[in-house]
Structures are given as C-alpha cells and as structure tokens.
Write a structure and sequence with these properties.
Helix 7 runs parallel beside helix 8. This protein is about 40% helix and about 15% strand. It has 8 helices and 6 strands.
Length: about 220
C-alpha cells in the first residue's frame, strides 16, 4: 500500500502535487522489497505512479478513490480508465473504492453499479473493492460485482483489539473465515499490519517491536 506523503505533506491538501522525482525515489526503494504497489487515488500526483513504476519493473494495483461526491468520482474513474489503457502491462488490477461502505459515503447498490461500470470500461483487467472484512459479510452483493475480494484485517483497530502476540493468528483465522464465506473468488489481504506508535487500545500496544513481530509473523504465514 503506497502513499507518497512525507513530513507535512497531506492528502487533505487538495492542491498538493507530489513531484515525479519524489515518487520515483520511493518506487526505486520499494522495488527492492516488493513487485507490486497499491495506490488509493489519482490525486496529489498519484496519477504519475504507473509510468514511474514501469521504469523500475513494478506492477500497480491502481486505486479509484470513491466518496459521496459524484463529480470527483467521475474524474477518478475516467483518469484510471485512461491510465489502464495506456499502461496495460503495469496496472495489474483496479481497486474501485476503498472503505467507502465503512465511511457510509455510498450505498452498496450504487457501489456495485460503479464496479460493474469500471469493469466494462477496462476489459481484461481484474477489478475489486477494498474494505474491512466485516463489511464484505454485510454487503454480499459487492462479491457478485468484483473479480476478486480485497479485505482489510487490522488487529489493532478491531472493535475488540487483538494483542500483538495474537495478531498473526487473528489475521489467519479471519482469512480462513472469509475463504469459507466467499469460496469461488481469490481473496487478497489489501491491508494488515501494526502501528509503531500511538495509544494503547486495551491490551493492544503500539511499538516498533510489536510492529516487527506482527509483520514478520504475518509474512511467515503468507
């Protein structure tokens, strides 16, 4: 999962455009540890990612940021469709929305319609939607619209927080539960991990040590 923001740079600043040089430096470093990056929108200069990723041999799971603003949604979709046609060998799949159901900014019916619309416009490129795992179970109609299921499993942020030593086992159990619930499509864990700093949530303690433990144990499971 890639966001290019450094220091005071923020996606909440709609006029901010991250330079190609900064993104290229990030992608060069990321190419040493991964073969693919996931983006979340085409704002703030992120539309440059496919071209820059191509130069360092990275694939891109390209994100469309959906919200309650239909005009902005249209720009996100149109820009992504154009990039998918320009970089078909780079953009390996498209994420139509991220946690828009969790935020309550769109109905499942409208979301499913947009997913199908994008799918029709980018023939041959797999399309998904990303959300916290519970929301897939609540809105099964989204399952019918996507090519594969993308779930977020964040043990620290669960309604009942999971301790670091149990986090990897929690990720594993949820992954297995989702595989039973959705048996006919590939399941991608789009987000997981552990915070390096922050407040304690019940027994869930953010620290760099716990972060290293959780990430290494999840990778070992994968």
């Amino acid at each position: 999962s890639y966001a290019p923001f450094r220091g005071a740079q923020s996606p909440l600043n709609s006029t901010l455009q991250i330079s190609a040089e900064q993104i290229a430096a990030d992608l060069k470093q990321l190419a040493t540890v991964t073969g693919c990056v996931r983006t979340y929108s085409v704002d703030n200069g992120l539309q440059q990612v496919p071209a820059l990723a191509q130069k360092v041999g990275l694939k891109v799971i390209h994100g469309i940021w959906l919200s309650s603003d239909r005009l902005k949604n249209r720009v996100q979709i149109d820009t992504t469709v154009a990039l998918a046609k320009e970089y078909p060998g780079v953009i390996s799949s498209i994420m139509v929305g991220n946690e828009v159901l969790l935020r309550g900014e769109m109905t499942a019916t409208d979301l499913a319609a947009l997913i199908r619309q994008v799918k029709a416009e980018v023939k041959g490129i797999p399309v998904s939607y990303a959300d916290v795992w519970e929301f897939w179970l609540r809105h099964r109609e989204i399952y019918d619209a996507v090519d594969f299921v993308t779930i977020h499993i964040l043990p620290y942020w669960e309604d009942f927080p999971i301790r670091a030593r149990h986090a990897a086992a929690h990720v594993d159990s949820i992954r297995k539960r989702m595989a039973i619930a959705f048996p006919n499509k590939e399941i991608l864990i789009g987000e997981t991990g552990w915070p390096s700093a922050g407040r304690m949530r019940e027994g869930a303690l953010p620290s760099r040590t716990n972060q290293a433990r959780v990430v290494s144990e999840v990778l070992e499971l994968a």
